[in-house]
Amino acid sequence: MAAFIKKFFKAKKPDTNRPASKPSPARQLDPNSPEDLLTLQKRIRENDDPTVRNAAVEQLNHIQQLIPLYPDVSSSVRGRIAQRINQLAKATPHQVEEARRHLTDPTQQALIEQLCLAGTNSVDQISAATDPEQLIRYAIEGKTAAVRLAAADHVQDEAGLQQIQRSAKGRDKGVYQLVKKKLQAVREAQEAEREKQQAVSDLIRVAEEHARTDNMRLYTAKVESLQAQWRDTKANASTEQQTQFLSALDSCLKRVKALEADALAEQASKQKQEERAGTLALLKETLGSLEQEIPERGPSLSALDALQKTQENRWLEATRDAEVSKAEQKDYQNLMLSLRNYIAAVQRFLAVAEELDSPDIADAAPARLHELANTVDWPAGFARPQALENLSRKLGETRQARKEEIADQSEQISALDSLLDRLEKSLEQNLFKESSQLHKQAQHAFNSLDRRHASARQARLTLLGRQLHDLQDWRGFATRPKQEELCGAMEYLADQHMEPEAKAERIKELQKEWRELGGSSDQSLWQRFKAASDAAYAPCQAYFEAKSELKDANLQTRKAICDQLAEFVENANWSSMDWKAVEQIHRVAREEWRQAWPVDFKANRGLQKRFDGLLKQVEAPLEEARQKNEALKLDIVKRAEDLLTHEPLSDAMTQAKSLQKEWEQIGITHHREDRKMWQAFRAACDGIFARRDARREEQAEEDTAAIEELKAALETSVTMRNEGNASPEACADMLKTLKQVTLPRRLPDNLKQALHDERQALQSQVDAASRQQQVNKWLEQFSSHDADQNVKQSDLPSPLPSPRDIAVRLEILTGASSPEEDQALRMQQQVARLAAGMASSSTATSTEQEIDTLARCWQVQDVTQDEAESLRSRMADALNQWRDS
């Protein structure tokens, strides 16, 4: 970045020594020269200026030079080439045969047939089997409207239709409308197909999302709905799309099966839970009844034994592959232990029941009675058989003795209960060592109690002892295999080539698992795990050392970036700044800062604050410049939108182009805001030029209507003239109509020539009728013999010319010949006219005025009958010659 900042502050010197280039003078190219021919052909193919291309086409004077260019140029240039070829074919027909002899390529032969020979592209020859490129050419350059329409109707390709539409716009309304409708139909079909494909894509997307969703509500119903929708849309799907949907559907169906399996498992779990609850309820009910009273016939050992076995089996089935809470398991164990103790007591009681019921028991020694009581050891809290009650009375147990015994051992019972509570909590936490010590202490306290008080806690101590034994078994059978597994995993990791970061993370995970197992008393196993850990971490050691060096280097790089930014901020002149360069500096600084990673977090903390502060100092003027430029662009957008209704349209388009140049000169902005403003500006400009296109289209339609109107007027005029009975007034009216008819902006050459010819023909007929009327008037004047006193003589020449002079002058004016006897008079008058014309500076009179003057000179004098008759034929011939001139 340092080099970039230096380059930013380095001034650029303009290059003033480069000589200005002078345009070379253009010369006229000769198409008969091979080099000039290549130059002309290159201009036609590659030059962007239509004037240059058209001029080059006009310079080519042979068909065989133009035919090869036709396929290589745009449609507009093709039209110009086709016109030039048509002109050459009409002017020099022999060029067509020459081109056919020299151009042997089939495509070029077809072009000769199309462009040079009339009738080759008739409607009958056009069909759907015609070559598509040929159809496009016929539709654009066909000789007749029927040919163009037929060719356009057979074109199906969208690109071809668009090409025809561009060419026909403003030139061929029928073809333009036909192609426009076909393109609309094509686009509607494409839109329908896009909608079908979008429906397929949306269905695939929904299926894929449903396959990944965590919302299981109505999941199966949604899958069935997707299957139903797919049956309606799969006909529009490609093979790849079908594969995607079926893959997503398969995932959905698997999840449906999993849901069904989970439901079945939950139902089974619920049934097992109900079975366990039933077992506990039955055991509690049974033990509760035994605590209240003894069955009338005494306790039934077989019934109790059957109850124990059935409930044990029931509990095993209800806990297989099921999670059982510790409280629930503890309740079961306590209840089943109490039942077992009771069954054992019943068995002991039945063993001595005969002796207890014998009459000799009353005479038995107290020692024997105590022995029998100890042998039965009936559990406390349960109702005792009558025989045991009798035995208790005989032993002389009194209430006072029992109170004293309880008072003596209350302290030991309290200590034992406390130890048992602590032992129970320790076992729940799986603390083996602590649990072992507490169990020993509880066992010692239990042994210090008498039999009666100890028996009440025997069951709980026994249960906790079994739990301690289970914990010891779990440590022996679960911990060691897991530790051996961790050793194997660490040894495997030591042999693997992995990314150091990932490998170190995995080592930490394995070490954490080892610690959570509580370590191992087997030192050999621990040494094995430690050795494997050291071996696995050895390759990571070098990496982390190199990483530490890299962090130091990156830290120095970041310091340098901060120094460079600080220097830039200190030296920057914000009043005259290249904001694009500043923006680039800002971007490069952030990119280089990001690339200088990793770094030490603590060491980087201060640098990060400094870097952020410097960036803010650069960002502040940048943001100000962006906002200023955005305001300028918003103003341009507003002005462009105002031009949407501005008139005249030409002025609006000129201003729009100026606004585009003004837009390009504005500097940096926020990318997102600039994009929005550009879209609004572009939409406004498009609207302005859309008005131009719409107006051009309207003008094209008006021109087409004007051409049709002109054609109809010409046809009417030609028909009227050809019938031969048109009056001069009708011809004058028709001539006025043709002069006042609305003309299109661009009148075709053939129509322009036809209009000019028809106007001249009508003008000729009008002029001929006018001359004939004038001749008839003069003949009527020359037919008089006596002087007409109504004619004013003030503006006639003096002296008046004689009748013979009038006849000769009339022959001179009309260019008619004079008789031999009047040749001298004719020469004399011609010399006099010449001299008078040279001497006079007044405006010359027209021939009609002079003839009219001669006719009035004839009228004001008396002419003899003979003289009038001899001269009348000569004057009539002269006037007829003037009429026909």
Helix content: over 70%
- Beta-strand level of the residues, as a percent range? under 5%
Overall spatial form: elongated
As residue ranges, the low-confidence spans are: 11-26, 398-402
Number of strands: 0
Give a quick rundown of the structure.
It contains 32 helices and no strands.
Fold and architecture overview:
This protein has helices at 2-9, 34-46, 50-59, 63-66, 75-91, 94-102, 106-115, 132-141, 145-154, 158-168, 173-212, 219-233, 239-292, 301-319, 326-357, 366-376, 386-394, 399-428, 432-447, 451-494, 500-516, 523-571, 579-595, 601-642, 649-665, 671-723, 728-740, 749-782, 803-814, 823-839, 847-859, 865-884. Among the domains are: 34-193, no CATH class; 267-467, no CATH class; 480-545, no CATH class; 783-884, no CATH class. The protein has 32 helices and no strands. Helices cover 76% and strands 0% of the residues. It is elongated and about 215 Å long. The chain has 885 residues and is mainly alpha-helical.
